[in-house]
Amino acid sequence: MAWRIEDAVAYGEIDNTVEGHTTGRVWLAGRDEPLILSLDGDCWRDLAGTRLRFENPAPKVVADSDALDVDQAGIVGDMTASRKNKVPTVSEEECHELYQNHQEIPHEWRNTLYLEWFSEINGRVVIETADYALTISPHEWAMDEDAEEAQKLANLNSMRDFMAQVIRRRDSEGPEPEISEELDEFAWEERLKESDRLTDAYQEVLEKYMEDSDSEQKEAFVMGWDGLLDALAERDEAGEEDFPGSEMSYGAMENMSLGFDDDDDDDFRDPDDESFDDDEEDHPLQAKAQELAMRAMDVIERDAGPGTPSYQLITNLLQVSGKLAGALYGSGSGYQPETGFVLAVLKRCLNWLNEAVGACQKLMEMERDPDQKAALDHIRSTAFEIRDSIVEMRRELK
After folding, report:
1. Separation in Å, CA 352 to CA 125, 183, 305, 394
2. How many C-beta atoms lie closer than 10 Å to residue 368's C-beta?
3. pTM over 0.70
4. Could you say which DSSP state residue 183 is in?
5. Which candidate, 149, 116, 142, places its Cα nearest to that of 24?
6. Which of 101, 205, 304, 361 is a plausible cystine mate for 310, CB 3.0–4.6 Å?
7. 105 near 99, Cβ under 8 Å?
8. Which stretch of DSSP H or E encloses residue 390?
9. Over the stretch 101-142, which tens digit does the pLDDT of each residue have?
């Protein structure tokens, strides 16, 4: 996924005074040598033909930045100092408090520096910020509107190519199993991995285009959802907001990419959907996993940030509960998911449970209150019980 390095940048420069070629140097906190940019393509009109110098007033040493290669040769993405973004008008602490209380965060629209390129070695790299001090030289050549639109279209295609590499879809022309043929565990595992990559890619695409006026079209094009793109075009041509087919969004497109037909939707329904039969009982293992996740949320701090043991414990237990619901729902109904699918999901649940147990162990080592430590120990023991049950279920299914 994208390297977002705005926090690590100390200062740098972008030079697009030679039409068709963009160069630059970017110094990162904690590194002596700058990144050297040598990119094919031009910036947007505001920066095309200029030299841009920028400085970060509060650079930070970011460990991951060490993995960036000095040689940043490749092609330009969107490069502009006039991208419009919502910028909060309150402090980070106030933003967090408002978010926790489900209140709107006050903001204003401001020009944002957005520097994006696609490196041959590191892939997509992004600098996005409204906090840098900028100095822009006079234009040595001028880009007209048509040339800018052509460059933006080239950038859109570069983003699409990059996302195709991230998602790594199965070859649509390759062999497909017969409809009557069940996929085994390993085939389902590959499809679920593709689903994970698709989810990560879509999140990255949303972050980039969500504020654009034509965000739907750009997102569909970049994700390679040509069916949705065609439906949106028909909707716009008909002048109807709810043109049939335009509601085909991420979930439907993900199912299509995994090889599910629209007729199969009922087989992969959300068990929390109100349209479900209320008399249908949850599988006891899923019910136990859900109860454990809820208990853990009561025991540990609720506002722990990403990367903390508390956050890892909760997110992994919720993953297990949710995935078990999808794989084991309807054990007493007529619907029976494919054995390979269930095996693949259960294998993933084992990984999440291992992560949860490790996070719980870290919390126990840091905890000084004996009652809290006992509660954490009970969570860990229950996680082991669920893990043992999943191992036994996989053994029976095989």
Report:
1. 29, 23, 18, 16
2. 6
3. no
4. P
5. 116
6. 304
7. yes
8. helix 370-397
9. 667 778 788 889 999 999 999 999 999 999 999 999 999 999
Rg of the Cα atoms in the chain: 25
What is the per-residue pLDDT across 310-360, written as a single tens digit (0 to 9) for each? 888 888 888 888 778 767 754 444 445 667 777 778 888 888 888 888 889
The tokens for 221 are: 């094009």
Q: What is the CB neighbour count within 10 angstroms for residue 186?
A: 12
Q: Which helix (H) or strand (E) holds 145?
A: helix 145-167
Contact yes or no for 345/323 (Cβ under 8 A): yes
User: What is the C-alpha to C-alpha distance for residues 208 and 218, in angstroms, rounded to an integer?
Assistant: 10
Contact between 257 and 202 under an 8 Å Cβ cutoff? The reply is: no
Answer whether residue 243 shows pLDDT above 50. Answer: no
**What pLDDT, in 10s, does the model give residues 32-89?**
999 999 999 999 999 999 999 999 999 999 878 888 999 999 999 999 999 887 777 8
Angle at 29 between CA 26 and CA 32, to 5 degrees: 70
